[in-house]
Write a structure and sequence with these properties.
Elements lengths: L1 H30 L4 H17 L1 H19 L7 E6 L5 E2 L2 E13 L4 H67 L5 H35 L32 H23 L3 E11 L13 E9 L5 H68 L5 H36 L1
Protein name: Heavy metal RND efflux outer membrane protein, C zcC family
Subcellular location: Cell outer membrane
InterPro entries: TolC-like
């Protein structure tokens, strides 16, 4: 009992160590690219998610069940006990037989228990990869939603800034009306544009709450808990975009290797199952004394037994062996398919990341030109000439470029998160 308790403690320690290592790997994978200020907020969210996310907890419990099954297979067949009473007592030289007691224990062939343990351990190792996959997917989900939240908040700030700018233009228009350089239509156009921006801000606020709910669900907490983000998020001017590849150490691929290994262990187990089982037993027969004196009168019978169980009809094992061969080929094909899907996903993410950076640079240039045009219009007001139609056009372009820059930044980091998930 003490030895078994010690083994269980060692197993729990190994599970904790594995979880700690997995958390460290996942954390390093996704935090390397993120700016320090952003990582502080995102780090807190990810830590909370890894601690209490239902998907991870479910995968962890399934792994614990699979690990405990290693102890389940470490057993011998049931010991057989028998008791028989002679209704018609057969006579022997030493007396009539009264009853018979027997005990028998079958033992598997040498190495059979070890083979079962190895098979159960291989299944548990394959199940463990589900934890690593769930952790990576959670980190990616939280990160993706975090960047969505950042983009939403940044867009709201831009909208508010544009609303204030329109209010300023409205003041200029009212002043121009007094001197006959504008009319009421210009003011109404500015007010309608301001109303459109108010509508967009209200919509963004609702979308913000929806994204916040997604994050809170990943963290397994109330959907109304507030989530704060930082606005200091930019695309780096210079970066090293080294060529990255999908490796066999990725959990989604490694899991197929572990499943393949479990089938290999199943083959070893089948080989042991074909071997005979050896049985040891003991029969005891109670003898009643005869009325006349004889040698060994009433002496009981004690008979040791040795038996062998041979699987003569072993078509079941042959079928299972064929099934294992097919299963191994299936895992090979599934791994190849998964690898191809991951490679395609990685290539798409890299191209989208490059496209996001191109878009960011282009929209930054356009925004600078739009602001320059805005300055020209404001200076023209000082000379008494201003076209509020041009003002609205420039304001709309400026808003478009600002939002496009935010979208490009969001896309850049979301694609980088996918790349990290696939390659780290």
């Amino acid at each position: 009992v003490e030895e078994k308790s010690k083994k269980n403690r060692i197993k729990r320690m190994k599970i904790k160590i594995k979880h700690s290592v997995a958390f460290g790997i996942v954390w390093c994978c996704f935090m390397g690219i993120i700016p320090t200020v952003v990582a502080q907020d995102l780090q807190t969210l990810i830590q909370l998610g890894l601690q209490d996310n239902p998907s991870i907890n479910k995968a962890d419990l399934q792994y614990q069940i699979a690990s405990e099954q290693v102890n389940e297979v470490n057993e011998l067949p049931n010991t057989e006990f028998g008791l028989g009473y002679f209704v018609s007592e057969p006579e022997t030289r030493t007396g009539p037989q009264k009853f018979k007691v027997s005990v028998n224990q079958m033992l598997p062939w040498f190495g059979s228990i070890t083979a079962r343990e190895n098979y159960a351990t291989a299944l548990a190792d394959a199940e463990y990869e589900s934890i690593a996959i769930a952790q990576r997917q959670l980190v990616m989900s939280i990160s993706q939603n975090y960047y969505e939240l950042w983009a939403n908040q940044s867009t709201q700030e831009i909208m508010i800034s544009q609303k204030e700018l329109l209010d300023h233009y409205k003041t200029l228009a009212l002043t121009s009306i007094e001197v006959g350089q504008a009319n009421a239509v210009d003011v109404l156009k500015l007010e309608m544009r301001a109303n459109d921006i108010k509508e967009q801000i209200s919509i963004l606020q609702q979308e913000y709450l929806a994204i916040q709910t997604d994050i809170n669900m990943d963290l397994n907490r109330e959907k109304t808990v507030g989530v704060t983000v930082t606005s200091d998020l930019k695309i780096p001017d210079y970066e090293s975009l080294d060529t990255v590849e999908i490796t066999d150490l990725h959990p989604e691929l490694l899991q197929y290797d572990k499943l393949y290994e479990s089938v290999e262990q199943s083959d070893q187990l089948l080989a042991k199952a074909r071997a005979p089982m050896i049985g040891f037993g003991l029969d005891y027969i109670a003898i009643e004394k005869r009325p006349e004196p004889v040698v060994d009168n009433g002496k009981d019978v004690l008979m040791p037994m040795l038996s062998v169980s041979i699987p003569v009809f072993n078509s079941k094992y042959k079928s299972q062996s064929v099934q294992n061969k097919i299963q191994k080929e299936t895992y090979r094909a599934q791994k190849a398919e998964k690898r191809n899907n991951l490679i395609a996903l990685l290539d798409t993410a890299e191209k989208n990341r490059t496209a996001a950076k191109i878009s960011f640079n282009t929209q930054t240039k356009n925004l600078e030109q739009a602001k320059y045009a805005q300055d020209i219009l404001l200076k023209s007001y000082e000379t008494g000439i201003i076209d509020f139609n041009d003002v609205l056009d420039i304001q709309e372009l400026q808003l478009k470029y600002e939002v496009s820059r935010i979208t490009a930044i969001k896309s850049y980091y979301q694609q980088q998160t996918i790349i990290n998930y696939l390659t780290q």
